[in-house]
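Reopening this one. Same input as before:
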Amino acid sequence: MSAVVDLRQHRDVSGRRPSGPLAVVPPALARYVAHVESLLAGAADEEALAARVAGALGELACERDLLAPEQRIGDAETYTRHLLYADPEGRFSVLALVWMPGQGTPVHGHTAWGAVAVHEGRPTVALYEYEPGYGALPRQELQCVPGEVSWVRAGIQYPHRICNTSDRPAITLHTYGRDLSRNPTGINILV
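Same output, byte for byte:
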């Protein structure tokens, strides 16, 4: 059984859509957005698209000066989402998530394809296998490092959770195949 999670306890800090040609975003983010737009134009299937976006996101994650100081702010209560870019056509969104020590998600899938890269810190990703009638069964846990990337398809077939088990903040970059400017938590499907 699954339902769209309304994670109201998670702090969302919405960015603004650029009114001009990406003039308000850092050059590295503008190049990334242009690259994702070109990938969307030639996308054959969701799996190939998500994998290609993940490769480009890994490069973006290595950009040291990518985030403004206000986009690096976390919250002591729960992880924080900062919307970096929302495609004006609603095709994708780019976010930075700040994870303070001990913060994490519930086990979930997504309502759209997605790509994730570690920008700073060492978050842990727990992978599960979805079994109808049984839910999410633990499969593997990975300690991630900066620059490491992964991608997911839409649905609950590949559930996972992200957690910062370290004693320092972590920042991850996320790109999802839908507009999250109004409801950034709407991407998650609780498993």
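So the earlier flakiness isn't reproducible anymore. For the record, The longest helix spans residues 46-61.
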